[in-house]
Write a structure and sequence with these properties.
The complex is a heterodimer of chains A (about 375) and B (about 80). Chain A is α/β, with parallel strands linked by helices and about 375 residues long. Chain A has helices at about 15-30, 40-55, 70-85, 100-110, 130, 155-165, 255-270, 270-290, 320-330, 340-350, 365-380; strands at about 1-5, 65-70, 90-95, 115, 140-145, 170-175, 190-195, 210, 295-300, 310-315, 330-335, 335, 355-360. Chain A has 2 domains: about 15-270, 3-Layer(aba) Sandwich (Aspartate Aminotransferase, domain 2), CATH 3.40.640.10; about 270-380, Aspartate Aminotransferase, domain 1, CATH 3.90.1150.10. In chain A, helix 1 runs antiparallel to helix 7, helix 8 (about 270-290) runs parallel beside helix 11 (about 365-380) and helix 9 (about 320-330) packs across helix 11. Chain B has about 80 residues and is α+β, with helices and mostly antiparallel strands. Classes of the chains: A alpha/beta (about 375), B alpha+beta (about 80).
Amino acid sequence: MLYLDHASTSWPKPDCVHEAILRYLRDVGASPGRSAHRLSLEAERIRFDAREAVAELVGMKDPMRVVFTCNATTAINLVLRGLLTPGCHAITTGMEHNAVLRPLRTLEAKGIAVSIAGCRADGSMDAAAIEQHIRPETKLIVANHASNVCGTVLPVREIGELARRHGITFLVDAAQTVGAWPIDLHHDNIDLLAFTGHKALLGPTGTGGLAIDDDFAVTSLPALISGGTGSRSEEEIQPDMLPDKYEAGTPNIMGLAGLAASVRYLIEYGVDEIIEHERLLTRRLIDGLGDIAGVRVVGPGDAQRQTAVVSFTVDGLACSEIARALDENHEIMCRPGLHCAPRAHRTLGTYPDGTVRFAPGPFTQEEEIDLAIEAVSSIARRGIDG
Amino acid sequence: MAEFAVILVYTTTDAIFAERVLRRADLAAKLIPTPRHLGSDCGSAVRIPASESERCEELLRTAGVSLSRIVPLNT
């Protein structure tokens, strides 16, 4: 069985993740922030472990500026719906996931203007492509760090520099990169970074959050969800201090226990080691798939410029059928279709048919990549179930 | 002089942050329910030896922990 769907959710997780979740369920169990007894405090310590680990990974000094949500989508919604008011203008890119585009389209109907900066046919772009859309009322630039369809990495540092120069807030959708690509909030000029726990961070689903740069004034960003935080209980107004402002309601501590363990694991294992290994796998996939007659690899085709996500099409065959045959006949799991990113597929010229996406992970072996290439080769030569 | 002092913070996360910073400096910090007469910002407060109040305050400010105030704990 070969799992090549890490861009959706990484699996398997390191053993320490299972153990941390089990330890929380078995030995702790309480909710954090609500009571001051030992188990409640231990739950808060677990949540703080996760905050500290994520802050360290993305180069932040202040763990209080890491706030947890249930996924990157919620963090993105928090920013877009909180920051953009009627009359504002926002700029995004032609490679976005629907996690960005759907909330923007919803806001567009409420009087917020949206511009989409075009990308090249391999998904890449220069910061200048964004600059030409800037207007006096532009309040936000939102861009993904890497495409979930084909791995193309966008020049976030340059885009961030541009945003700083024009006094515009910069939000990065880093769902595909935190844990799999170098990222440093400060050096990359990022104001707000939405991350997810269940992909390259190797944590459980239902975890994610927003990392907030020291210089970003949270007074300008209202909470998406209001409610109990365990602090300022005498007040009926949502507190303005971090992290409570954005963390109303009982959190997913079971998930955060796993996330704390997985991020600590990544820091100790070394993200650079993982990147190096995944580059090897990506290169092997690009070369191997590219050599098969009738197969077209979509995207940069360059392991230095993309994450470990390789999309392809096979002439004359539907991607959904290819994925079915890979699963049923070869026990290879991948994701076909539009990957919740129709705009990106339009940019890549693969809309509406989509692509087949192979996304290996840190524990995938080179021989497994060869098996996947051989399976696609067989399908391309003999047909779907040949 | 009181034996202990209490560091009052705004959130439980601040309390955990403070506990971590102080314990890393080998200080005997203990989390306790905030004495009701001292405040209601946060359900947890950090109890420290009163004699270490100044050192604790300096460590916490350097680490960037938001604290409300430090008060003697009179029992």
